[in-house]
Amino acid sequence: MSFFPCHQGFPAEARKFRKLLVKSVxxxxxxxxxxxxxxxxxxxxxxxxxxxxxxxxxxSSTGTMAISExxxxxxxxxxxxxxxxxxxxxxxxxxxxxEDGASDWPxxxxxxxxxxxxDHVAAxxxxxxSASRKAVLPVLERDNGLLYYPTFYEGLxxxxxxxxxxxxxxxxxxxxxxxxxxxxxxKTFYLIGSDYIWPRTTMKLARKYIENVLHGKxxxxxxxxxxxxxxxxxxxxxxxxxxxxxxxxxxxxxNVSWFKQLKAAGINGGNQTLLTLSVTEDEAKGIGGENxxxxxxxxxxxxxxxxxxxxxxxxxxxxxxxxNAPIGDVTQAAYEGPWLWKKAVEMAGSFDTDKVVKAEESxxxxxxxxxxxxxxxxxxxxxxxxRNGEW
Amino acid sequence: MKGFGKAVLGKPGFVDLLVxxxxxxxxxxxxxxxxxxxxxxKYLTFAYCAVGLxxxxxxxxxxxxxxxxxxxxxxxxxxxxxxxxxxxxxxTAHQTTPGIPDFMDWNQVTQLPLFWEPFHSFxxxxxxxxxxxxxTAYVIGVSMFKRRVSGVYFSIITQAIAAIVTILVVGQQGFxxxxxxxxxxxxxxxxxxxxxxAKYILYFxxxxxxxxxxxxxxxxxxxxxxxxxxxxxxxxxxxxFSGYDVSSYKVFVFCLAxxxxxxxxxxxxxxxGFMSPSIIGIVPSIEMVIFAAVGxxxxxVGAVYGALLVNYGKTAFSxxxxxxxxxFMGFLFVGVVxxxxxxxxxxxxxxxxxxxRRWMMKVKGGKGIPEQLNENARV
Lengths: 391, 379
Hints:
Chain A has 391 residues and is α/β, with parallel strands linked by helices. Chain A has 12 helices and 14 strands. Chain A is elongated and about 65 Å long. With 379 residues, chain B is mainly alpha-helical. The interface between A and B is large, with 60 and 65 residues.
């Protein structure tokens, strides 16, 4: 028995089909070239009417990063609703289109493209990890979009299309090291971070600063794989070397194991100075306060900051998102995004990206943020204070 | 050419293939704007893996949960070539070491690693996209099938390899770009790949290659090899006792699926503009199996529709319900598996095909395809 019955009658028809296929493909291609010529002109429009302006929000609301990015989503929505309550921007209410980057970098690129090319948003508030920003960057530059990026990050970047409302590595590193060298008379340092670009760049800067400026000594430098939960050998080395300061940039879930194992090994705030760059209120909730007591975090913002602006912000945030919502450094930086955008648009008198960027680069944009007065520098980063907080 | 004609033309499956070609090459480009078309192009790159899995899993009964590895090899080969072109000494003059990719500079790598050097050549890159996955699959295939590792053990091992490769790529960030992947790719031989017209051209290249892959699959599966694959899926021992070298057939189809996936990966890099480890690991590898399952694992054309449908669902649901969309995807998978275990192609076989057959009978004056004989003849 044959599985493949043979049909003698087909070839003539097949030839016809082939001809048809070739013709239709050609027709499709020609039509496309025409289409392409039209669509590239429409891309620069921004979705703004007399009453409304559309902005995008692009964070991960699903996947591993959701836990970190939720605070940023909430803070941006709070800022936007407050701006709308005050009458909006240039007399227009802000409408938000929220997209989910799903903790997946190609998805971030896809969604950024969608926001810019289909929805024609005036600005995007979004991204958390460096990887997601790197994925979105070429899209922004090509479609001339605007991104307000809230996370403290490794620096080494300055795109005309991005405003970085978090700190870049030099801002976070130098002042923190100065402080610890001065107040704790630290001479020896042990550097540890997760193994990816932000900790590596940060530690590269820290090493130069410690060796050349503070004239201190680095007794160890180590990187743990992302997601690693085993710090036993690192902790043993720390016990042997007895550094004055442990300088840490361990991120994500690894933080929980890192601090728990330190405590179990008898290293705590009472007998060891530890300065971390990566523990905000969000992480502290997961690590557990008792494992952190006495250690220090170098951040530009803490929820407990005792200023009238901050108290107002904290109570508004809690009123909207619940009493137990922690407010970390990135959450506060995300809150600044919509406000800075509003100021830049109002100064420019237009939603046009190039004009807004020009206003941003004027060096005249300031904002009374919860963390204190901030200046938007012409280099797209903020001039802010660094604070060292004790847990 | 005769074999080609026999396998592709003059079969009822030819109509399905033609419909698919028309949808991909004519309907989509006419109906969608460039942004949506580019998305379709991205979905189609995953269809390559699904097509590979139909051959491997649907016919050969070999469930590989590591097709992402091969997708990744193709994608990374293409990305390495494009990255080297984007990292010429002039545009990287601000780096500590000009002329190497930016992520290497961040990671204090001061010299281009040796294995990057050949990727200066486009010809070598194209060669690598085909040969490296074939060799990798050959080594994995020989070491497992010759030892008669099969079934669930094979699946677990491929999954473990996918995990290992991801950890390696993420861990060796100085050489691979780590978790960020290889980003900011700009030109191919001086041709800007990010313009609208380039996207159209790349879409068509991608579509045509996919259709050729499906045709290749049809040709291979319609030969004796295709029937042997079916036979060893259902009764491996009986095939072995008949004197066939079972493992060689398995190795061959594994290599073939790997090469097809790798081409898809290379196309992915060109469609999306970067390559990242997030699409080579365990989760995306399993997703590729889902594409094949939704499309119908016995149908090459169905696999393409499966990949399109699932990815379109992902985009559509997540645009409409940014926080709840994963639940909808879950419902879709559970629904499809419970109600249509044969996938989309099963639906097609039950509802569309009998009508088509009746219509053909009418057209050809009663010389249609006898129903029983047609079973299994569809690829």
